[in-house]
């Protein structure tokens, strides 16, 4: 079997490594600033846990291998200008946008995109970082450090945020997980719920959108598509050419997790439509100190990434899964007592969504 090298050594690389054991694959995450150049064989695979990376000796080495998967996609997706251009070219619904050039004025952006405009850095943004709201009624100007470095988007008055995680193999076969409902707070994913019968009718539309994107790029592996639901329409917010936080629930709630699915696809092993079991809820652990009591929550898996605790930082997640919704609700009520008060809104949202199921 080939070794699968992962560009990036954060939690996604670690969870790919965890998923590799049943496949007897050796998965080796690599830090972009590592001093040591790994010895990569021609039949090895190189994949990524991030869509952009600093230019270092190691990242140059990894990305120049014959086994570097989806080499062409990162230029198209990592830069929002190219990603939005690709979506427009494919005729896929996305938030109306325009490029922020060196001479772009707020007035012109409002004339085209409305009173509330969201600036997003072309590169490097994540977890809501790299965003800036321009409000017409406050007379905001485009800050000088945004000129030539961003895109501007129309504010989408969405009903909710849904994401689709899918995978494509080298022969073009595709499989998908059910649409996942996501709650973001200040741009950071806080919780996901899946599956959800009330959005199942949107699944074919979402699958055909992501299929078109993956097929057009001849993509191999897992890709995630973040969407806004506006009425019965799906509007693509952004794409991630990798495993994705909104797919973490598949570790507990599907017969093949997104991590194993990605490894199967990139290493030429069979992929299959993942049967989903029971009800899943994922809670992200953001900026909180570790509590061992989380490990006692019934029907749960807890993941702690071993990173330094900082406000707003993703430090771990907890998957709750059970065939019966009532058991999931019970587990959530236990976990609610163990997380800080600022999580109350998150639990209220999940409770409300579970009641609607
Ligand atoms: P990131 O790379 O930080 O995830 P996103 O583009 O996904 O960047 O934006 C983060 C969050 O900001 C989204 O999940 C959504 O809640 C909000 N957001 C992004 N774009 C828009 C928009 N055009 N209108 C309204 N809200 C938006
Ligand atoms: Mg996002």
TrEMBL record:
Keywords: ATP-binding, Ligase, Nucleotide-binding, Purine biosynthesis. Pathway: Purine metabolism; IMP biosynthesis via de novo pathway; 5-amino-1-(5-phospho-D-ribosyl)imidazole-4-carboxylate from 5-amino-1-(5-phospho-D-ribosyl)imidazole (N5-CAIR route): step 1/2. Residues 84-267 form the ATP-grasp domain. Gene3D superfamilies: 3.40.50.20, ATP-grasp fold, A domain (3.30.1490.20), ATP-grasp fold, B domain (3.30.470.20). It catalyses: 5-amino-1-(5-phospho-beta-D-ribosyl)imidazole + hydrogencarbonate + ATP = 5-carboxyamino-1-(5-phospho-D-ribosyl)imidazole + ADP + phosphate + 2 H(+). It holds the Pfam family ATP-grasp. Belongs to the PurK/PurT family. Catalyzes the ATP-dependent conversion of 5-aminoimidazole ribonucleotide (AIR) and HCO(3)(-) to N5-carboxyaminoimidazole ribonucleotide (N5-CAIR). This is N5-carboxyaminoimidazole ribonucleotide synthase.
């Amino acid at each position: 079997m080939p070794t699968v090298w992962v560009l990036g050594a954060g939690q996604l690389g670690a969870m790919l490594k965890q998923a590799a054991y049943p496949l007897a694959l050796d998965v080796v995450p690599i830090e972009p600033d590592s001093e040591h150049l790994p010895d990569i064989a021609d039949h090895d695979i190189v994949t990524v846990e991030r869509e952009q990376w600093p230019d270092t000796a190691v990242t140059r080495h990894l990305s120049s291998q014959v086994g570097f998967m989806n080499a062409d996609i990162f230029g198209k997706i990592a830069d929002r200008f190219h990603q939005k251009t690709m979506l427009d070219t494919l005729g896929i619904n996305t938030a109306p946008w325009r490029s922020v050039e060196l001479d772009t004025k707020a007035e012109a952006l409002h004339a085209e995109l409305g009173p509330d405009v969201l600036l997003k850095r072309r590169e490097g943004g994540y977890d809501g970082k790299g965003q800036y709201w321009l409000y017409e009624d406050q007379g905001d100007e485009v800050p000088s450090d945004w000129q030539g470095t961003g895109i501007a988007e129309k504010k989408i008055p969405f009903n909710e945020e849904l994401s689709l995680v899918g995978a494509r193999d080298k022969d073009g076969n595709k499989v998908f997980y059910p649409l996942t409902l996501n709650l973001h707070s200040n741009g950071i994913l806080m919780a996901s719920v899946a599956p959800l019968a009330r959005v199942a009718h949107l699944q074919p539309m979402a699958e055909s959108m992501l299929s078109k994107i993956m097929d057009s790029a001849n993509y191999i592996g897992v890709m995630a598509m973040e969407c806004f639901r506006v009425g019965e329409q799906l509007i693509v917010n952004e794409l991630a050419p990798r495993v994705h936080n909104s797919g973490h629930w598949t570790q507990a709630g599907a017969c093949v997790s997104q991590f194993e699915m990605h490894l199967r696809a990139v290493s030429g092993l069979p992929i299959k439509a993942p049967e989903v079991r029971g009800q899943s809820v994922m809670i992200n652990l953001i900026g909180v100190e570790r509590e061992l009591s989380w490990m006692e929550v019934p029907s749960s898996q807890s993941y702690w990434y071993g990173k330094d605790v900082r406000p707003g930082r993703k430090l771990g997640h907890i998957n709750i899964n059970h065939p019966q919704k009532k058991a999931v609700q019970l587990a959530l009520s236990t976990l609610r007592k163990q997380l800080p008060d600022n999580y109350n809104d998150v639990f209220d949202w999940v409770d409300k969504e579970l009641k609607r199921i």
